[in-house]
Amino acid sequence: MLNLRIAKKRFTTIAKNYVNGKWVQSTGDVFFKSRDPSTQEVIREVPQTTKKEFDEAVSSAKDAFQTWKNVPVTHRIRYMLDYQKLLKENSEEIAKLITHEHGKTLVDSRGDVFRGTEVVEHCASFGSLLQGETVENLATGVDTYSYRHPLGVCAGVCPFNFPAMIPLWMFPVAITCGNTYLLKPSEKVSTTAELLVHLLEKTGVPKGVVNVVNGGHDTVTHICQHPDIKAISFVGSNTAGEYIFREGSRNGKRVQSNMGAKNHCIVLPDADKEDCINALVGAAFGSSGQR
Question: Helices H, strands E: what count in the chain?
Answer without folding.
Answer: 10, 13
